[in-house]
């Protein structure tokens, strides 16, 4: 009897934000460990092999567990770097091929793949956003970091226009919806909670709610 090979596609969770140091790699690490503890098979894909924050931390964690003979659930991990090709078209094609090969490779042993983007507008980051099922964008809990999502009127907190990053996420969403009839679930995470003064924090929350409706994301609380 013929067997039917069902295509098993893993769920892709992308950590993205063009702003450096907003907490992408830290949140990626926590998401990976939480998913592993819930019993999922998890793959980790570091899109910044040069900095290697996620892959390096995971390697250190695995080495520590081995030294101490602790049985820690661990993800399969890959890291990819930017192409060194001269022509832009060639570099972008090579990066797309690297990314898809790494995802296909991890997919064989993962239910969920967590992709950690570099903190800049790079082709690899854009490719990852276009493939996301869930996009998590950590932002610092402050108005300074709002510029990353939108330009906001200072007096009445009206949204003047979305940022380049929000426009990029929108474009990725539209393409995905047209191609696969699937939405990207965009989650903005308020990171580093608790340092700002209370009223300011309330305003950040209020403005984020307005932005969430306007731009189309949901918010979650991050780490204090
Ligand atoms: N909630 C938090 N509270 C305190 N420190 C934090 C928090 N989140 C992240 N950090 C620290 O901030 C620094 C930057 O975090 P992280 O490396 O995760 O950011 P990133 O967005 O991945 O940066 P990059 O854009 O360079 O990849 C790290 O030193 C990290 O430990
Ligand atoms: Mg990082």
If you had to describe this structure to a student in words, what would you say it looks like?
The protein is globular and about 55 Å long. Strand 2 (42-46), helix 2 (53-67) and strand 3 form a beta-alpha-beta unit. The protein is built from 6 helices and 9 strands. The protein is an alpha/beta fold and 224 residues long. Helices cover 42% and strands 20% of the residues. The protein has one domain: Rossmann fold, CATH 3.40.50.300. A 7-stranded parallel sheet has the order 3-2-4-1-5-8-9, sandwiched between helices. Strands 6-7 form a two-stranded antiparallel ribbon. The model has no long low-confidence stretch (mean pLDDT 91). The longest helix is centred in the middle third of the chain and has 20 residues, at 88-107. Adenosine-5'-triphosphate binds next to helix 1. Magnesium ion (MG) binds next to helix 1.
Task: Compute the number of strand runs.
Answer: 9
What is the residue-mean pLDDT, rounded to a whole number?
Answer: 91
Question: What would the CATH topology be?
Answer: Rossmann fold
CATH class: Alpha Beta
Q: What is the H-and-E element order?
A: EHEHEHEHEEEHEHE
Structural class: alpha/beta
The distinct ligands, each listed once, are: adenosine-5'-triphosphate, magnesium ion
- Radius of gyration (CA) equals 19 Å
Strand content: 15-25%
List keywords for this structure.
224 residues, alpha/beta, Rossmann fold, seven-stranded parallel sheet, two-stranded antiparallel ribbon, 6 helices, binds adenosine-5'-triphosphate, binds magnesium ion
Summarize the structure.
By secondary structure, the protein is α/β, with parallel strands linked by helices.
């Amino acid at each position: 009897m013929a067997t039917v090979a069902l295509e098993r596609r893993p769920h892709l969770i992308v950590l993205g934000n063009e702003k450096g140091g907003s907490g992408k790699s830290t949140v990626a690490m926590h998401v990976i460990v939480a998913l592993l503890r819930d019993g999922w098979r998890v793959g980790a894909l570091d899109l910044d092999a040069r900095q290697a924050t996620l892959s390096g931390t995971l390697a250190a964690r695995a080495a520590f567990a081995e030294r101490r003979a602790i049985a820690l659930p661990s993800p399969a991990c890959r890291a990819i770097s930017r192409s060194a090709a001269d022509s832009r078209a060639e570099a972008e094609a090579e990066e797309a091929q690297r990314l898809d090969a790494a995802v296909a490779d991890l997919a064989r042993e993962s239910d969920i793949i967590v992709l950690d983007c570099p903190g800049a507008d790079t082709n690899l980051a854009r490719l990852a956003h276009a493939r996301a099922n869930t996009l998590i964008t950590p932002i610092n809990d402050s108005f300074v970091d709002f510029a990353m999502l939108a330009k906001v009127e200072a007096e009445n907190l009206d949204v003047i226009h979305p940022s380049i990053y929000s426009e990029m996420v929108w474009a990725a969403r539209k393409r995905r919806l047209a191609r696969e009839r699937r939405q990207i679930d965009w989650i903005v995470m308020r990171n580093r909670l608790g340092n700002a003064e209370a009223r300011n924090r309330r305003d950040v929350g209020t403005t984020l709610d307005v932005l969430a409706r306007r731009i189309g994301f949901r918010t979650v609380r991050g780490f204090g």
